[in-house]
């Protein structure tokens, strides 16, 4: 959602625009997620190999943190594009995006 | 943490026993981790397919929670076996396990 | 972050407006915070009275959750007002707010 | 709960012993909690004074972290004393403590 016009209630993204706000960071997010897939496979292998619990826990903490970093990046992209664009273009659309964002933050904070 | 002999002859794990406390739940942990691997691949696919940020975030929250469930299970197994066994057998070994556990909890709580 | 004038003459907050985005929910936030103060005093009293660790921990979890609820409310207010207003009025101001928000989210998620 | 005897089902804490495991760190926990009370009052004052949202959020993160540090300390004390002592003295009591601990960890991790 990148083609915004003005604050005066202009039509939303151009048809064909990516329906999300992370277009600019898509390859970063994918690279992180591929790394996380490998990390999870590594944790599975550790358990399969009967590795020491504490070492498995250390690795799980690292994966959890890496996932939360991706979530943070997506939240940032989302506010930066979807929420801001919607707010610029149309109060009702902005309101809807803000409600969605609050729910996503709630889930990310595990509340 | 398993082949220790207690001060009062507490029964010890058989020699050759797995060097960790999650032997009883190993297949549960592996099943959860395989599911998590699939979930992470699903998140990657969502980003690759330009799915809406909020939906990706919802899925990341689910994966994070699933990982923390595995961490909780491992912590429980660890206290139940490694820490308790060490404490029963030898104060110094118990102390070492407790120090390790505190660090693992700290990382799991992200402090 | 309120007395900025947009490039396209977007309506700006009245001069003298509160310099924050939570004006509408200020009394809610204060009520929650007063309750949290009481809860923390309650935890202190529990420890002072040698209450059982697990019961103290349950109460600390409740306080932590209540604090995170206030943080969530403030984040929501902040995006809803400060970030959106800044983005509407001036790209550079919007950018600055977004950078600040990302840092605040990072701290709130403890990354 | 500090006066344990042996692994052979010995009588639990002496009558009159504090019914919790944090006796050794009670004054530390109280000092931290008093500081946290002051921090929460500080957050209330910030909101009352219409301080900038991001600054309030930064302070809330600090309080949350301080509370989680107290939780971590209590968990450590609890495993170190209550769980270990119970496990040493009586399998059924140990089992009960371990179940309680798993629930407390679950709440602390917000699962």
Automatic annotation (TrEMBL), chains A, B, C, D:
Gene3D superfamilies: Metal-sensitive repressor, helix protomer. Residues 1-25 are annotated as: Disordered. Coiled coil: none annotated. It comes from the Bacteria. The keyword Transmembrane helix does not apply. The keyword Phosphoprotein does not apply. InterPro entries: Metal_Tscrpt_repr, Metal_Tscrpt_repr_sf. Keywords: Copper. Pfam families: Trns_repr_metal. Belongs to the CsoR family. This is Metal-sensitive transcriptional regulator. It comes from Streptomyces thermospinosisporus. The lineage of its organism: Bacteria, Bacillati, Actinomycetota, Actinomycetes, Kitasatosporales.
């Amino acid at each position: 959602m990148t083609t915004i016009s003005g604050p005066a209630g202009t039509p939303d993204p151009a048809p064909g625009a990516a329906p999300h706000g992370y277009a600019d960071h898509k390859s970063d997010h994918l690279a992180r997620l591929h790394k996380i897939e490998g990390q999870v496979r590594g944790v599975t292998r550790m358990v399969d190999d009967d590795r020491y619990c504490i070492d498995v826990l250390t690795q799980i903490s690292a994966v959890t943190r890496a996932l939360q970093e991706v979530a943070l990046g997506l939240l940032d992209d989302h506010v930066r594009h979807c929420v801001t664009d919607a707010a610029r273009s149309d109060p009702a659309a902005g309101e809807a995006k803000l409600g969605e964002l609050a729910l996503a933050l709630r889930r990310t904070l595990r509340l």
